[in-house]
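Ligand: flavin-adenine dinucleotide. Inputs:
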Amino acid sequence: MKVIIIGGGIIGLSSALYLQQAGCSVTVVDRSDMLQGCSYGNAGYICPSHFVPLATPGIVRQGLKWMLNAKSPFYIKPSLNKDLVNWGLKFMKSATRTHVERSAVPLRDISLLSKQLYEEWTSTPGIDFSYEPIGMMELFKTDEHAHHAIETVEKATALGIEAKILGKEELSQMEPGVTIEAAGAVYFPGDSQLYPNQLMHNLRGYLERSGVQFIRHREVTDFVTAGNSIKAVKASGEVIDADHVVLAAGVWSASLAQRFGLNIPMVGGRGYSITFEDAPYKLRHSIILSEARVAISPMNGNKVRFGGTMEITPLNTPPRMQRVQGIVESVKQYFPSYDIPVPPAEKVWYGYRPCSADGLPYIGNLSHYTNVTIATGHSMLGISLGAATGKLVSELVTGLPTSMDLRPFNPERFC
Ligand SMILES: Cc1cc2nc3c(=O)[nH]c(=O)nc-3n(C[C@H](O)[C@H](O)[C@H](O)COP(=O)(O)OP(=O)(O)OC[C@H]3O[C@@H](n4cnc5c(N)ncnc54)[C@H](O)[C@@H]3O)c2cc1C
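Predicted complex:
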């Protein structure tokens, strides 16, 4: 079976890996050189701790407050764009306690499956990606966040995910090399860290050596259909035949899906990161600054990456350096000795998270086409859920029973 995968981010590459192993002839088509998309400069967390979707009660009110501050972690550019309005209404409708409770088990299950698969990848020669099971700490300063941390530990424990509260003293024992200004932390020993740039580079190389075809710098713009199946994709003037199509084009999947009549509400949530090599910022754990929503990732032995912000903004808007300034200033509030320089704009990475309207990914086959699989909308969790998504995609394409119940991720749930 000839499978065309549209998009060579982590979701496309992981799907290619498992489809190739299942005996399919696999071609990945990407409109870029596949070197710097959203799957590269992210924080690299493999985080079963993240069993709460983006759409939560209170996020809209908090988001509106943040919008007034140019350095805050969240921003939506006000617009009457119909896709944004459609997404916003569905997002607000999803941001309920019931939705959060319903999403916890499926998010836990796909996260744990993914973590297990990444651990298997570590023993595949040629796919080294600096996977480190170092655990993650979410630091908090305020009473409100301390209260939230206690609730999180209770929920995590009920789900079978190890988590505990650390006081100030225990926190400094966990990170003895630096002074931390925080009241405490939630510690998730089961989370892991990887170096996404290395993962993407090595996975692509491994796939090429295994016979996966890559067609770079070709933008898929349309499809050739016959009855209820897709016969080919049209990419920059070329027509590429397909027995099956996997749509894994990140945030750009939504407009392509409209070509075959599927509405998957999605917006780009832009985030920024800055990475330092051999810098004096040495940490033993992955760290989240709860109030500031900033991620700090020690990577690959000698690197540290600071990342954050969620800007819902048109995809061609120039980067806003004030957001990066906001990240740097937040870090200093928790780590007073970290005098992080704001690098010039060309050294700042940014990428667009494919944000679904309820914070859950879209993974599944379509009911009105026999040979299309959707794999996108992973929002803040595309790396964490990447390996599992690839495996699930290969099961969907080859007609095997899936490793977990995929109904919560049905791509047609908003149709
Ligand atoms: C600051 C930041 C930190 C993050 N930290 C984490 C983290 O710690 N853990 C985690 O799990 N996730 C994290 N994320 C989210 C994660 O990076 C994304 O969810 C993930 O990379 C999405 O992968 P993807 O393959 O769906 O999309 P992408 O990586 O965006 O790949 C999509 C690909 O499709 C191609 N494409 C698009 N349109 C077309 C077309 N028409 N034709 C051909 N090709 C096309 C693009 O060129 C691109 O290569 C973070 C994101 C940001 C911004």
